[in-house]
Amino acid sequence: MSGFMNGKGAFLTLFIGGVKQEPLEVESWDLGPVVEKIEDNVCGEDRARLDREISHYTLSLSCFNSTASKLKAMLQYDESVDANEQPSVDLGLRLTDKRNGRSLLSCTEGCIDDWKWAVGGRTARQKLTIPIRVRYAKPIA
Fold this sequence. Notes:
Helices cover 10% and strands 55% of the residues. By secondary structure, the protein is mostly beta strands.
């Protein structure tokens, strides 16, 4: 049995304002840090001293659509932002590792950026892309 993880073992749950949203039907997603690269050039040393500071994390979700409920959720979120009532955006990720079982991650204190609803054509599946920035991404013990 291969020890590589695949998409069948990845589940994502979105919470807006503490309310669990309907399943997202995520086709693909990616998560990564946004870092400031630091180079300190000290006189007499042959190389710079390297470091980094994490600003935040970005998460991008590419979702299929079977109903318009996700579009409605995005529009409601935008209305809340317009009313200066920006709700918190949090995510829970469950990954299944073929060797070690389940791993849980939480992404907290986020906001949804410029989401996009796309229709490719008569037979193409409708897609919703949700870019999210979060302050923290942490494993859950």
